[in-house]
Amino acid sequence: MTSPAPVIVIGGASGIGFATAQRLHEAGDTVVVADIDGAAAAERAAELGGPAASARVDVADEQSVSDLFDRVVADHARPRGVVNSAGVSTAGAIADMSLDDWNATLSVCQTGAFLVLKYAARHVVDGGAIVTLASLNGRQPGTGMAAYCTAKAGVLMLTEVAAMELGDRGIRVNAISPGLVDTPLVEGIYLVPGMREEFLENTPLGRSGRPGEIAAMAQFLLSDDASWITGAAFDVNGGAHTRRYPDL
Ligand code: NAD
Q1: What are the angstrom distances between the C-alpha of 55 and each of 119, 140, 236?
Q2: Transmembrane residues, as ranges (predicted)?
C-alpha cells in the first residue's frame, strides 16, 4: 500500500527492524528509520534511498520518544504505522544479576515498549496500526534470561491493553514473538558452545529464522489484510514454541 503517511520503524538500523524497513520501502511506504544509533539509522535510510528518512531515538527516554513523533509529524505527516523493534538482551542468573543489568534490559525492552505505545497512541492516524516485538521468551522461560523474559511478557500484556484502549479509533496493535533469528542481538548466544545446535534441535523446522521472515509478518500486520486482527501475538519461530527452551 502506498501512503503519504509514514511508517516509523524503531530499532530500524539493524536486524529485524531494518528488514522491515526494507520491505515497507520496497512496497512504496515512506519509512522513517529510527534508532539509538543515529549514524547507523542515517546510513540505512540512505541505503534505502528516497523518500526514506532517519532519526535518532532512545526508547528508554521519554523526551526522546516524544521528540521523535513530533519531528515525524512536522517533517512528514501523522504516521499510519509504527513498528517497535528496539531491543537489547542481557544474560545472567537471577542470583548473580546486578540491578543495573536488570534495569538496562527492562528500561529498553519494557519501559521502551510503553513509551513507544504512549506516543504512538497519540500520533498514529485513526485506522492505523502498531506492531510490537515481543519474543518466544515472553511466554517461554529461559534460565539466565529473567530480565529479558520478564520484559517480553510485559510487552505481550502491554500490546493487549493498548489494543483494547485504541480499538475505538480503529487502531490495531499486535505483537510478533520471534524465535531465534540471525541478527547481532543473538551473537552472544552463539558464543556458548553447543547452544546454537540445542536451539535448532528444539525447533521443528530445524533452522534459525531470517530477519525478512519476521518483517513479512510485520508488513502483513500493518496492512489492510490484517484489518480484523488486534491484541494478538504471532509466533514466528519455526515451531519452537512447541518445545522446551534450552538452558543458557
Ligand atoms: P538487533 O540488535 O539486530 O536490532 C535491535 C536494534 O535496536 C539495534 O539497531 C539497536 O541499536 C536498537 N536499539 C537498542 N536499544 C535502543 C534504544 N534504547 N532505543 C532505540 N533503539 C535501540 O536485534 P533484532 O534481533 O533485530 O531484535 C529486534 C527485536 O526483536 C528486539 O525487540 C528483540 O528483543 C526481538 N527479538 C529478537 C529475536 C532474535 O532472535 N533476533 C528473538 C526474539 C525477539
Answers
A1: 15, 33, 28
A2: none
